[in-house]
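Sequence in, structure out.
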Amino acid sequence: MAQEVVMLGTGNAFMPYGRYHSFAMIDGKHVIDCPPTALASFRRSGVVVSDIETIFITHVHGDHVFGFPFFLLERRYISDRGMEKPLTVVAAPGVRDRLKQLCQLAYPGSLDEIFETIHWREEIEGELGCGLTWRRFVVHHDASVDPYGYHFNAGKNGSFVHSGDSGPCETLYEQMAQTKMTILEMGLPEWVESDHHHKPSDIMRIAQRLPQVQMIITHTFIDTPGVQPVPTVTDEYPEHPQNVHHAEDQFKMRWDGTNWLLGE
C-alpha cells in the first residue's frame, strides 16, 4: 500500500517556469512515467536512480518517456554498474518495442544489455511484491500513443488515481469516484481548441461533481508564481473549489491510515 506520493515534476510538455515535466514517485521506489527531466528531478530530490524498482508508463508521448534512455544509461554506468538491482516496467502491450527503439536511437548498442534485464508487466491489473496494486484503464487522449490512467490500490484504503494525459473522460471519472485522491492533469489553457487535455473549466466541473475527491493538479501550463517576471503563458491560478490543489514540484501527499494529508 502506498504511504507517500511526491510530485517530482508538475509541468506540461512546454515545461513552464519553475517546473520539470510531470513526474510522480510512490514510496521512493516506483515512478509514473520517465520524462526528459527525470534525472534532473531525481538529482534535485536526492533520489538514487538505482533505488527505483518500478516504472508505470501511461503513454508514449515524448514528455512522458523520452527520459527512459537516460534513466537506463545512468543505472548501467553509474548507480548500478553490475546490473544487480531489478527493474520492472508496467506498460501496455507494444510499449516495450517502442522504448527499445527509443534506446537504440539514443545510444545504439550501449543499453542493450541492461534493457534485456527489465521485467515487463503488460497485464491490465496486477500487484507488485510490496503489495502495491494497479488497474490500468483507457483515457481520452491521442489514441496513437496508447493513453492510459492508473488506479493504485483500487478497493483498498489509501487508493488513488493518476489520470495520465487525458481530456474529459467518463472512464477516468468513474475511477476517480472510487477514491479520495487523484493526480489530475490540466495541460491546456481555456482558449486552446483541443479536448485531449483538461482545461480549467473542465477541472471546475469535475471538482463540483466529485467534491469528496482531493484533486492534485499536474501537467499544468501555469508557471510557478513569482519565478519569472514574464510568464510563458500565465502564472496565475484559476479559482477552483477547495478540493482542487495546484501542486508545485516536490508537493507531497501522505496517507495517514484514514485520509490523504496534502503538502506534508
